[in-house]
Amino acid sequence: MRALADAYAEENDALRARVDAQDKEIATLQANIEALNIALRSAPSAGEAETDEAPPQTIGEAVAFARTKLAGRVVIASETDADIEDLNPSAGPPDKILRYLLTLGDLADALSKGALGQSVPIWLRERNVECSGDSETAKTSDKGKRFRNRVVEGENVECEFHAKPAEGVSPDLCARIYFATGTEAPFVKVGYIGRHSA
Fold it and tell me: For the purposes of burial, counting CB atoms within 10 Å of the CB of 4, is it exposed (0-12), middle (13-18) or buried (19 or more)?
């Protein structure tokens, strides 16, 4: 009996050592996965990689480039041209606004293939675009409605989301991009690019 108990004890010790080694290996693999996820989020998006031209110097340049590049996938209301006049030309900054707009192009491509499987803000945050919906207070305020309810290519559009390229800066530098998503092309409609409504 004692010999049998000793044999079981040795086998138990060996199994514990194997489990400890496997736990360490799992922890290392999980750390590697996290590091790869961080690297992936930090990598330039497909939209950034495609732009070999000089970065835009003003928001107007960024919007003009995005309109051309995203034609048929993302529509940007002509009204935004007047909206951006209230912003400092370097608000955003312009290259960040362009990156956000190009990422909305990636969103349009993803929506063209069907459901995202997650919310739009989460999908965009995973691609380094800060986005949210309006608070209940903003939804009911007249000032908030001015930014959300826009005409895009002759159609009344309620922009349910807004991207936030700049936070915690002076009002003339604090830009917002209000947009709506749809189930048919163009899958993303941008109604407002301009000063933060608050």
Answer: exposed
Per residue in 32-80, pLDDT tens? Answer: 787 676 666 555 554 444 445 688 888 889 999 999 999 888 999 888 8
| Paired tokens of 3 | 């010999």
Give the chain's mean pLDDT.
82
pLDDT higher than threshold 50 for residue 198: no
Peptide bond between residue 93 and the one before it cis (omega within 30 degrees of 0): yes
Long-range contact pairs involving 49-58 (C-beta distance under 8 Å, separation at least 24): 50/102, 51/98, 51/102, 55/94, 55/95, 55/98, 56/94, 56/95, 56/97, 56/98, 57/89, 57/90, 57/94, 58/89, 58/90, 58/94
Assigned token pair, 27:
């922890």
Strand ranges in the chain using DSSP code E only, listed in sequence order: 74-76, 131-133, 149-152, 155-158, 161-163, 175-181, 188-195
> In this structure, how many other beta carbons lie within 10 angstroms of the beta carbon of residue 83?
21
Q: Give the whole-angstrom CA distance, residue 157 versus residue 153.
A: 10
Give the pLDDT band (50/70/90) at residue 156: confident
Per residue, what are the HEC states of 55-86?
CCCCHHHHHHHHHHHCCCCEEECCCHHHHHHH
DSSP conformational letter for 181: E
